[in-house]
Amino acid sequence: MYSMEGCIFCDIVAGKIPSTKVYEDTYFYAFKDIEPVAPIHVLVVPKKHVASLATLTENDEDIARNMLFTIQKVAATLGLAEDGYRVVYNTGKKAGQTVHHLHAHILGGKEMSWPGV
Ligand code: 5GP
Ligand code: ZN
Questions:
Q1: Hey, which residues are catalytic here?
Q2: pLDDT 10s per residue in the chain (117 long)?
Q3: pTM score over 0.90
Q4: PROSITE patterns, from UniProt (predicted)?
Q5: What residues does each domain of the chain span?
Q6: CA–centroid distance, residue 46 to ligand 1 (Å)
Q7: 95 pocket-lining for ligand 1 (C-beta < 6 Å)
Q8: Domain 8-108 CATH assignment equals 3.30.428.10
Q9: What rounded mean pLDDT belongs to the chain?
Q10: Which of 24, 27, 80, 90 could form a disulfide with 75 if both were Cys (CB 3.0 to 4.6 A apart)?
């Protein structure tokens, strides 16, 4: 697996920084957000370091193909399949991306409004 020096989420995937694991397979890791903004707030990350949705390339086709199904599986594991949930990929500066390792936020456990930007 390719990781990047100094990347918090690479360190979490490698177990160098502790996290509350929700799901793991060969390619993905899911864990609770340290500062939840909803009763359920889980992050899904590829184990391979990819900076953001904007820098995903054809070399990352496996990630692109499987990430959505992984999110679906994790959301079901969290009991959100029926209730509903929101998936957010903050991408780049104006979207407020603070960790530059691709991640999807799964948010649930509350009634949400939309538009919410
Ligand atoms: P972004 O703003 O980049 O979309 O989201 C980064 C998320 O990572 C934030 O919601 C933040 O709370 C979470 N986060 C940052 N550092 C850590 C950490 O060390 N552990 C965990 N579990 N979450 C983190
Ligand atoms: Zn990383």
A1: 103
A2: 689 999 999 999 999 999 999 999 999 999 999 999 999 999 999 999 999 999 999 999 999 999 999 999 999 999 999 999 999 999 999 999 999 999 999 999 999 999 976
A3: yes
A4: HIT_2
A5: 8-108
A6: 14
A7: no
A8: yes
A9: 96
A10: 80
Question: Rounded to a whole number, what is the distance in angstroms from the first to the last CA of the chain?
Answer: 35
Phi-psi region of 77 (alpha: psi -120 to 50; beta: other; left: phi over 0): alpha
Q: Is the CB of 8 under 6 A from ligand 1?
A: yes
Backbone angles phi, psi at 48, to 5 degrees: -75, 140
Q: At 94, list the tokens.
A: 């104006």
**Structure-token pair, residue 80:** 């959100």
Q: Map the chain to HEC letters.
A: CCCCCCCHHHHHHCCCCCCCEEEECCCEEEEECCCCCCCEEEEEEECCCCCCHHHCCHHHHHHHHHHHHHHHHHHHHCCCCCCCEEEECCCCCCCCCCCCCCCEEEEECCCCCCCCC
Q: Is the CB of 34 under 6 A from ligand 1?
A: yes
- Residue 1: what pLDDT? 60
Query: Which residue shows structure tokens 């500062």?
Result: 35
